[in-house]
Amino acid sequence: MNPKQQGLRMVEAFYSHRIEGPELVEHHRLLKGAGEARELIDQYPWASEIVLTEELG
């Protein structure tokens, strides 16, 4: 393992949400640990996705 990578925890995130319109768009990101994972979760458009899921099923 590269010394720069020691202790670095990589997390692979797969998720989907709507960008424009009713179609879900798949996303894939490689995150550099818990901090980036929390940021991704905090930035997810939860409110709009809940409304659209209830409307569209």
Properties at a glance:
57 residues, two-stranded antiparallel ribbon, 28% strand, alpha+beta, 2 helices
Helix count, DSSP H or I runs of 4 or more residues = 2
* CA-CA gap between termini: 45 Å
Task: Report the uncertain regions.
Answer: none
The SSE order reads: EEHH
Shape: elongated
**Could you report the average pLDDT, rounded to the nearest whole number?**
87
Q: How many strands, which pairing sense, and closed or not: the largest β-sheet?
A: 2 strands, antiparallel
Helix and strand content put the structural class at alpha+beta
Taking Cα atoms only, what radius of gyration do you get, to the nearest Å? 15 Å
The beta-strand count equals: 2
Beta-strand residue fraction: 25-35%
